Amino acid sequence: ATFVGNLPCADCAGIRYQLNLWPDGLFFLRTTYLEKPVAAGETDRFDEIGLWSFSADRRKLSLRGSRGARESFTVVRPDLLRKLDQKGRPIASELNYDLTRQKTVEPLEPRLLLRGLYSYYADAGRLKECFTGRTFPVATQQDNVALEDTYLKLQQEPGEWLLANLEGRIVRRPKMEGAGEQPVIVVERLIKIRPGETCETSMSTKELEQAY
User: Fold this and answer.
1) What is the pLDDT of residues 105-151, one digit of tens each?
2) Cα–Cα distance, 66 to 52 (Å, whole number)
3) Residue 212 above 70 pLDDT?
4) What are phi and psi of 67, to 5 degrees?
5) Residue 74: how many CA atoms within 13 Å on its side-chain side?
């Protein structure tokens, strides 16, 4: 399902939300700051992936994002979500805090920094994203060559999982087997492969930005 809405913004015309919810508990979120001046090298659009869940009574939808987002919504109707405050309480305002379900799922290809365990085996690359725990196939295009080459130089045994930082986007592609589509990672730039580290290894956002 795709939910869309323009929510209030303190210093711009509004924040446009596009929230895509997938049946396996994964979400894609894009927030765009409307009519906000953007300096060179900056952006007015932010993408995030994460996990969504319902409360026990299915009246509340909660999002836990990989960039640190913690947001929640009241399920007003199956086709309408209303944003709650940071403590999960209704927002007392006449402004719009609603996201409306669209008739069809609207395409959204999140572009973001990704951190996960990478493996290359039998001519296929896979990335197990650290925050969501989801494993994505890796497309053989753009900077994938650098990722494969660096991995093959650093691996100690075939198919082992090595921690990788990269810049990429998640796209929908036809499944290799069976009908339907699946999310696939397109590597736009390899940042670094870190042998000996795991998803549990502590790494601050500042360190990641420095690596970037």
Assistant:
1) 999 999 999 999 999 998 999 999 999 999 999 999 999 999 999 99
2) 11
3) no
4) -95, 10
5) 11
DSSP letters, the chain, are -EEEEEE--SSSSEEEEEEEE-TTSEEEEEEEEET----TT--SEEEEEEEEEE-TTS-EEEEEETTS-EEEEEEEETTEEEEB-TTS-B---SS--EEEE-SSPPP---EEEEEEEEEEETTEEEEEETTT--EEEE-SSTTHHHHHHHHHHH-SSTT--EEEEEEEEEEEEE-SSSSSEEEEEEEEEEEEEETT--TTS---HHHHHHH-
Give the CA diameter of the chain: 60
Rounded Cα gap, residues 128 and 137, in angstroms: 9
Name the residue type at position 50. Answer: G
Instruction: Tell me the residue type at 33.
Output: Y
The one-letter amino acid code at 168 reads: G
Q: What is the number of other CB atoms lying within 10 angstroms of the CB of residue 135?
A: 12
| CA-based torsion, 107, 113, 115, 120: positive or negative | positive
d(CA 133, CA 26): 10
pLDDT tens string 49-85: 999 999 999 999 999 998 777 899 999 999 999 999 9
How far apart, in whole angstroms, are the C-alpha atoms of residue 59 and residue 39?
40
Question: pTM for the complete prediction?
Answer: 0.87
